[in-house]
Structure formats: structure tokens, C-alpha cells
Design a protein that fits this description.
By secondary structure, this protein is an alpha+beta fold. Helices cover 41% and strands 28% of the residues. It contains 3 helices and 5 strands, in the order E-H-H-E-E-E-E-H. A 5-stranded mixed sheet has the order 1-5-4-3-2. Strand 4 and strand 5 form a beta hairpin. Helix 1 runs antiparallel to helix 2. It is globular and about 40 Å long.
């Protein structure tokens, strides 16, 4: 399984999502974190299984939540470039 590397902005996206969800309901962000980890494991096992939304950029879903994981596949690693809710535009990630 290839290594998964997070851009700093993607790491911050994940932390912000956890904080936001925990503010909405205690423990919800923790649940999101667990399901995000499951999504990342799936990406690691089958990196090409997610839909390609732009050349070289794939989008995977976080189970139960509407959040998406955007990533690229490099030779020896997967690079997570963003984690976002669909109410947010992907333009920032695709530019």
C-alpha cells in the first residue's frame, strides 16, 4: 500500500471538519475522523477506484458524511490535496 501524504491545507481541512462537527454534536467529529480513516485506507488499497474529476485528481467519499477527499496518485505515494463538504467549491483545489 502506498504512503498517504497530506498537504498542510488538507490536514487543516480535516481538523476544521472535526471541530465543526464536534461543535454541532459532541462526538460527531470523532465519528467523522474514524470514517475518514476508513476512506483513506480504501484509497490506499485501491487508489484508482475513485472517480477522476480532473486530469490526475480523484475524489473519494467519506462514508455517512457528505465530505469528499481529493487526491492525486504519484509514483510511490498518494497526496491528499483537500477534504471538503460539497457546499464548498472545488475550484480552490483544482486551480
Amino acid at each position: 500500500m502506498p504512503d498517504i501524504f497530506f498537504r498542510e491545507s488538507a490536514r487543516l481541512d480535516a481538523l476544521e471538519a472535526v471541530d465543526f462537527l464536534n461543535q454541532r454534536k459532541q462526538g460527531l467529529g470523532d465519528r467523522f475522523s474514524t470514517l475518514l480513516e476508513i476512506a483513506l485506507q480504501q484509497i490506499g488499497r485501491l487508489p484508482e477506484s475513485a472517480r477522476e474529476i480532473a486530469p490526475g485528481i480523484r475524489r473519494a467519499l467519506v462514508p455517512t458524511f457528505r465530505y469528499r477527499v481529493l487526491y492525486t496518485i504519484e509514483t510511490n505515494r498518494i497526496v491528499v490535496i483537500g477534504i471538503y463538504h460539497p457546499s464548498r467549491s472545488t475550484d480552490d483545489f483544482l486551480a
